[in-house]
Specification:
Strand 4, helix 3 and strand 5 form a beta-alpha-beta unit. The protein has a single domain, classed as Cytidine Deaminase, domain 2 (3-Layer(aba) Sandwich), CATH 3.40.140. The protein is an alpha/beta fold. A six-stranded mixed sheet has the order 3-2-4-5-6-7, with helices on both faces. It has a two-stranded parallel sheet with strand order 1-8. It is built from three helices and eight strands; from the N terminus they run βαββαβαββββ. 23% of the residues lie in helices and 38% in strands. The structure holds zinc ion. The site of zinc ion has 5 residues, from strand 4.
């Protein structure tokens, strides 16, 4: 089973515990981008994997390749999909950046982007396919 073959969804159902885990991850490194993977089945989150940002930058992320490969292999074993790839924008709005659009290598994975609004970390989810951006509503469950 291909972990990258999650079907396109019209709504992202995100468990509150996963929402809080990612928010805490973004908060802990609020001077640079953080990143990771949300696994899931049928649009519902199952687990959050925090991955080191290899780029170590406030304006871009690059998942550390060895950690990323381990997560991909794990998901293949447990037959789960990559529902979303998340990262944070410490100093920019949550809308995908030019680099995010250029480097959207996984068209079936949602791009979940965290940003600060009036000091609160919030997230929005987008599909980026053929350089087109579509926002997908998130429902916290
Ligand atoms: Zn970004």
């Amino acid at each position: 089973m291909d972990p990258l073959a999650h079907p396109i969804v019209s709504r992202f159902r995100l468990h509150r515990i996963h929402y809080k885990q990612m928010r805490y991850h973004a908060e802990r490194f609020n001077h640079r981008e953080v990143c990771g993977i949300v696994s899931g089945i049928n649009g519902v989150s199952i687990r959050v994997f925090e991955i080191k940002n290899w780029a170590n930058s406030p304006t871009r992320f690059l998942m550390e390749p060895t950690e990323q490969l381990k997560v991909f292999q794990h998901l293949e074993r447990v037959k789960q999909h990559i529902l979303a790839i998340y990262h944070s924008h410490p100093n920019q709005p949550s809308f995908p950046s030019t680099i995010d659009i250029q480097e959207a290598y996984y068209p079936n994975a949602l791009n979940l982007i965290w940003s600060q609004i009036n000091g609160y970390w919030m997230c929005q989810a987008y599909y980026i396919r053929n350089r087109k951006i579509k926002e997908i509503p998130i429902k916290i469950i």
